[in-house]
Amino acid sequence: xxxxxxxxxxxxxxRPLVVILGATGTGKSALAxxxxxxxxxxxxxxxxxQVYKGLDIITNKVSPQEQRLCRHHMISFVDPLVSNYTVVDxxxxxxxxxxxxxxxxxxxxxxxGTNYYIESLLWKVLINTQKSSTSPRPVTxxxxxxxxxxxxxxxxxxxxxxxxxxAKLHPHDKRKVARSLxxxxxxxxxxxxxxxQQQEEExxxxxxxxxxxxxxxxxxxxxxxxxxxxxxEKRVDDMLAAGLLEELxxxxxxxxxxxxxxNRQDYQHGIFQSIGxxxxxxxxVSEGNCSPETSALLLQKGIQALKQVTKKYxxxxxxxxxxxxxxxxxxxxxxxxxxxxxDLLRWExxxxxxxxxxxxxxxxxxxxxxxxxxxxxxxxENKRSHRVCELCDRVIIGDREWAAHTRSKSxxxxxxxxxxxxxxxxxxxxxxxxxxxxxxxEDSVPPxx
Length: 449
Prior knowledge:
With 449 residues, the protein is of the alpha/beta class.
């Protein structure tokens, strides 16, 4: 098709950026490897934990053998003690790699489950404060400093410099509040104003700026929830068989044991926030210091916690695809092609074959034979309204969240309790008023002789 276009004097269609989305356990890495081998592509990992060296099993990195079959990027290059590697750092390095892959006439295949990493590659949604900062201190360190403050205090500070953004963020969402404060401190411009500028750019939309790569091919791997849950349970068992506990013990001894002894362990930043590490905290710190029976119980507790948190994470990932792609308002949304992966025995027919057909259609500049997933965008957009439920003493952000809160068991319980108190108070007042009338009447009528 490209050769025919050149013969006719037309430029060949641009190479597509292929992005593979999906919950953990759906086979994203396997499909990326198969597409890379068949289409001459290179794989760019978009996983916030796989950038770090170490914990290869728990972060589910592709094996060295698989990496030799097809070139992979953005895996195991950040020291595990680095705690301030940001999405901006990722975006800058990954975009340069993608441009280099395009320049070599190859197809970049982005694969991973870290939502905001993928968004940073597709849309102009990030603000690089490092370029505009005049402060000698790294801005990432400043964000960590801000996150140490109380959430209410952080939100109060943001309200003073950027009330519009403060109204959209919950005081408990310390990371986002700290980020907005950091943006203002480093640029002198309110975060909300910068976002408005991005949205108003040509090709922008309500959630951010224009697409970086308009010729993007998005493949979404999804499965029946029951089938996926079963697969994730087995994956944890396979990790244990592959040496997960030995990996965790070794990493704990090297990087975390001293921190725990000094009570300064941090499971909120860097690789230490990996799903699976903190779940085994009690087991790791008590190993050798408790009875075998207690150790076995703590081990089982960690295994069950890992299985549960992995399944919850998978649900959040699918929710993100629906909210940030299928329900994303505006014109700057690439088509998303769904691939059903519930039955792994039908991988060739249901996944690989249609995926190849879709990507090859993009390469050749023709319409794919598969229809994209229908967009679910609701014209009644969920506005980021700010409300305070005085009854429950809670801040609620978002119209839909407010509607859900007012229907929640907790809110209805408080409402029922208040109505009972009001009814009791009203009854007491009525009784008091009646008693007062009788006394007044007795006082006004002289006693009979």
